[in-house]
Structure formats: structure tokens, C-alpha cells
């Protein structure tokens, strides 16, 4: 038996030292707490059960105990006693349910059966286990966060498991952090500057309990937007079975990405948890202190307020919950060297303890103003499932937000919708009409056309309708309107003309994305035309539907090349990634920083309800490259006027999305000089010209 001492209230979680482990957990309304110690992760009987004494082991609402002799690698859990008068107090204490520690650094799920965490029966034989982890002895080899300026960032949103789980990846440990390390040369070659990893904190894959109605195969929670512990890496992405090295496996990945010059941004989910609604399991927060951690219906405290659309809503601005969130972020930055965070349904973090949005939400402003997080990228999904929409007015100054209006406008424009060119121009120029608060800049907007939630870029040009039948929800899930266009045939086709037009449209989307002011984000696999066969909500598809198919790299090599060259273009020309908005100011030659056109110069046709074309020139002065862009999303070929470039300069054509590879995008030194003052654009195509020094006669 281990020797038990009083312990200390801070820090929360399990903290090992040379002689033992200090355990601390918060519960305001518990009456008693038991700590269960297990030798192995699959042991069903504790080697020791320790009852915490209200007088010796409680300081205010922190319950604590020091257990001498316990070492890292020990597994543990809690039983918590208290009122079960849910309809009166909102409490859901149930001593039969074995709970994981919200602050634990490792989780194992060898025995886990979700159904047994529901109801009144004891689930010690099928519960999750927390693992004591020593985080102090890791050799970072001098690694630091990269702190790349936001204006120079190009984000690649990806799923850790799906990136290498396909047999085509030939990974030694597919679907893991280690396998992602194997693919870093690919990411480095592509040219992106940051990976945004879909949730990597521990979640419950079994929270989806349905089968594919077409194949009979079981479905699972693939995306991971149902967290059960925010401090522990998801065990499904790790090799170590006991949870001791999960932290270090993640660190190995971060260190390797940093060596390649790639930042790591985590998609974090603090708006709800995987415990679901009143009919779902007790895993952690519900059984620790339900009325502290969740919004409860004031009319019936048995029910949860569901601002998240996922069954429950985390009470983010309660002091204890805000403490957990901020300490969690600091942990991932200090101990794991993460470069940034994207907050899923981030608007929920602005809701006060009464559920109403706050201008000065404590948790948001503590993140905004934290010295530890000062150089950390913070990105919000600025909406929630209850209708709170905060694009352009998200609380705080330095928060960047997913610009859903950019996605919708650019999709409509490329599809060929009429009369929206004024809005298109605003989106390309950085959405100053949206980010109009004093001090806001283009970098407050994350521009994207596709993300994990919705069609892939290939499917956006291949399907008019969603096809989610395999999700087992009778195709009711997912967005019904996607501003997509199948170009004449729904899904795959052997029609060469349609294939070529679809490929051109993919290039159009990418070109607009990477010449727009703001921070671009692309979806992993779009560069090789990955398809989900029309599924626009593949959250439950852990299979070939969502996995990165590495065979596409060879099949669609020309598209992959275009993506690489387009990313290089954005890096080369700073005028497409300005720190500040265009002001309309003119240089000494009378040229504005940006000038807008249609087919005719200086006539953009803002009020033309039939227009599908837009052109613009970014003038850069005598010592930099000017850029002229012409976009024809009409259904016919059109001739555009080209402005006269400055003295001693001429235009070079860098991009024409209507041309076949490799002429569709070339390096500046290989580009052709333009002698004419007009250029004919094919239907649904984009041409980009860049100024260069005027050639000698022999060069023309």
C-alpha cells in the first residue's frame, strides 16, 4: 500500500516528483471523493482506493492528496459522491461512474464501453483511465515556436489520422503523429507555412453509434469534435499503448515540423464536450460538478442548453472553466510548443454565465492579453449553432476569424453568379467592409473556399447536391446549399471537356484565394483533387472517403504542380499579402495603390447586375513588381484591356488558368513579355500579369 499524505491544491491534475505524485481536482458540490489507482491500463480492479478526507484533503473546493511511491505510468481515476437531485440542483453525482481527470496528460481506452457510462450500474470494468505523465524530461533540442508573421502565413487544414491512414501512404504507423512526421518533406515541398490540425486532444470515437446503411460498416466519430480531455493527446494518434509517451510523441511531431519551418495550429473545442446531453454518458465533467461546467436549462435543470448543436454547452466564462481553458492553452504553448489555436464555434466563448454574449468576455480577453500567449496565433470560428454570428465584430483586437463571407462570395463568383463583383472586390481586398473596427487589418480575416466541414474543392466543382447517404441520417445532415456547380454531370465523368473545365475552376479558386489580402487557408488533399464523392459532412467516415489517397499525387500531378507554384507566387510577391488595407492613396505618378477595372480599364461596372468579370491592378512603385489580375467568370470568351505599366517596365504573363500545364503558371524568369494592350480570356479563367524590367530587343 502506498503512503498517503495531505497533498496540496495546486497545480490541478497529477503532478509527479522524485518521491510520489500529487493529485488535485476541483469540485465545489461534491461531498466525498475517491482516488482509484491502477497498475496497468486494462486492470479492472484498483491496486489501491484512497478516500479523501474533507478536513485533511480539501482546501476550499480543491480536493488533493499526495501519494508517496507512485510513479509516472500509473493509471488512475476518480469516484465522486454528492447530490443526485438533478431536477433541483442540476448535479449529476453518481459514485458508480468512474471518472477521468480533466487535467490529466494521458488517456487510455483499452476497456472503454460508452454505453456502460450511462445509467446507474458500476462501470469500473469498462471505464477510461487517466495516466500519470512526467512532462519535465523531454529534450527539445533548442526548439522554439516559430512566430511567423500572420501576413506571411499559409494554412493547410488537415486531419492527423486521415493524412496517413490510407494504405497508399506506406506509413510504418498509419494514422499517428509519427506517420505525419514521415510526410513532412511533402508538406515542405508543397510550400505551406502552417498546419492546422483538426482536434488532437482526447476524444471518444464511439460517440457515433450508427452503421453505414449502404455497407453495414460501423461509423465512428472521425473528426474528433467531441473532446473528453483537453490536456491529453488523442490515444488513437499515438503508438504507445499505456499513455506514458503520448505527450512526447506529439512533441516529436512538433519539433520535426518546426525544423521544416512549419508552424502547428491546433483546432481546439471548448464549446462543448463528448459527454453529450442528459441521455449520454458521465465521463468527467458531468460527474465532477455538472452545474459548474455546463449551461443548464433554468426551467428544468435536468436539461442542457445546447448553443453548440452537440448536446451540451461548456460554461466557458465561469471562473473555474475559464481557468481550465486558459491553463490548457498555456500548457500547449509552454510544454508542447504549439504556435496557435483555432477555436471551434468560438462565439460560445463570448457567452456569459447567463448564456448571453458579452463584449468583454473574461476568457476571451484573458487569452487576448496573456503575456504567455502574446505571440500565439488565435483564430476563432466566429459563430455557434444558436445563431450568434460575429464575423467582423468578434470580441478582442488581435483575434483572426474564419471569414465565411469570403467563402460564400468567392464560390458564387467562380460558379458564375451575376452582379456581385463589388462584394468580390471587397473580399479580395481583405474585407475591409467587414473588418472595419479601428485597428483591424487584413490579417484579422482567414480566407478559405473549402475546409473539413463541407465539400472538398474537387467536389465543389463536381456536385450540385450533397450525397451524405452513407452517414446514416437519410441525407438530412450537412448543408443543403453549397454554391457548388457540377458543370453538367453529377459526380465523376469521363467527359474530357467537363474534366478540363472542372480543373480550370479549381485553379480559379486557388488563384483567387492566394492573391487575396488576408490569411489563406486550404484543405488538405485539394491539391491532388481529393474527393469525398459528394459527402459534405464526413464527420463519421473514418475510411477511404476521407483519407488522403497518396496515389492521387501521381494521377493529378499537374494540379499538384499548380498548387505548389501558386503558393510560391504568394510568397514571392508581397503585394498580395499586405499588412494594411488599401487606402486609395496615389503615388507620384498618380497611380492608386489598387485600381479596379472590368473588361475596360477603370470601368469595373459596380452597378452592372449582369457582370461576371472583374480586374484590378496593384501598383507597387518603381522598385517593386506591379500586379494586374483579370478574371472572367462569364460563359463566353472576353477581351480585357491591359493598363500601361510604368516607364522602363513591361508586363509578363505568369498565370493563365485556361492554358494546359505547364503553361498555366510559370516562374517570372520564364514568363512571356506582353506586347499587346489587350488580352483575350477564355470563359471561366483568370490571368495574372506581373511587371518586370523592359527587355532588350534580343529578349522580345
Automatic annotation (TrEMBL):
InterPro entries in the record: GH, GH13_cat_dom, GlgX_Isoamylase_N_E_set, Glyco_hydro_13_N, Glyco_hydro_b, Glycogen_debranch_GlgX, Ig-like_fold, Ig_E-set
Domain spans labelled Glycosyl hydrolase family 13 catalytic: 157-570
Keywords: Glycosidase, Hydrolase, Transit peptide
Pfam families: Alpha-amylase, CBM_48, ISOA1-3_C
PANTHER family: GLYCOGEN DEBRANCHING ENZYME
UniProt family annotation: Belongs to the glycosyl hydrolase 13 family.
Name recorded for this polypeptide: Glycogen debranching enzyme
Organism of provenance: Dictyobacter halimunensis
